[in-house]
Amino acid sequence: MLMMDTINSVLNWVVPPASLVMLALSWPTLTFISICERIYHSFFVEDIGNKVVVITGASSGIGEQIAYEYAKKRANLVLVARRDQRLRGISENARRLGAPNVLFMAADVVKEEDCRRFINDTITFFGRVDHLVNTTSLGHTFYFEEANDASVFPMLMDINFWGNIYPTYVALPFLKQSHGQIVVNATVENWLPLPRMSLYSAAKAALVNFYETLRLELNGEVGITIATHGWIGTEMTRGKFMLEEGAEMQWKEERELQASGGPVEEFAKLIVSAAVRGSAIVKFPSWYNVFLLYKMFAPDVLTWTFRLLSSAQGMRTTPFVGTRRPLLESSSSPRRRHTVVPNTSVPRIQLVE
Ligand SMILES: NC(=O)c1ccc[n+]([C@@H]2O[C@H](COP(=O)([O-])OP(=O)(O)OC[C@H]3O[C@@H](n4cnc5c(N)ncnc54)[C@H](OP(=O)(O)O)[C@@H]3O)[C@@H](O)[C@H]2O)c1
Question: How many whole angstroms from 164 Cα to the centroid of ligand 1?
Fold first, then answer.
């Protein structure tokens, strides 16, 4: 024990400065290698035309726009979410944009048997899976201590963590056959925690760690693209959140809105272009990177900033982070209707020709 303590004390003094010196010396070589890789990837782009892309969470937001980007590249699509009436319209749009075949299936990614069924149906119909894009998610806007019902905690972890892992687990043997690609939608909150998002951030951090480990285990047989992004205009940012009571709620009008334009489309383009190039990471917007420096070298600055923001906004009446809209309005407000998302237990499969 004493021996270990002595070794660790010596290493604490020696390793950090030695590593920094080595990093500084190897920086030019590393930069050169990274530029060569970029040049290589800009020339050798996978032709995804007629290949098969499964997208979970395709009924809105980033998932929907990613479907359109793959459609423009003439990929066959399998669109998965619980609201199949929305998937129908999105499938038709994707067909018009160039996807040769589009299947859509109502399924709950939190259930392993649903995931098994939509991947098996994909194999039955197309015989292969080339890309698996995971975009299912549910955010929340409550302080941890405000939650009324602890049973919502596993639900948030289920959707944000296991909802990615089950489809990956089931699709992996087929992705290995096609030397395919997995796309993961994490978020900048996986390393830059924001108040009111504790469980969401925790699930996303777990997701990033899981896929980085899986990348090592797969050793290049299947590529993994991890996308970390900041605030983007989607259902999630337009009011779809989990409230303290645990119901999945949002403004009805906004839930039915088509998320399009600006950052969502731009980001979907970035993700698909990174996936076909086999890139490991996509970041949007990249200026968030500067906070990494603070996190590493001056974490107190971030803590003080968030404290300052929280006290300026008032702890219990803060608006949705980033939207400036009140969380709870009076029920007489005509804009506000709650929608509890139906729980689909039987997956349905449909083809748009
Ligand atoms: N928007 C942002 O600003 C932002 C920022 C950082 C990271 N992200 C990440 O980007 C990804 C996409 O976010 P988004 O903004 O596009 O969210 P979104 O518009 O709310 O879309 C979430 C999708 O997940 C589906 N879904 C939720 N639970 C499901 C379940 N149990 N089974 C099957 N499908 C389910 C929803 O469809 P149904 O309701 O029809 O099932 C919907 O299609 C997420 O991973 C999110 O964490 C978003």
Answer: 11
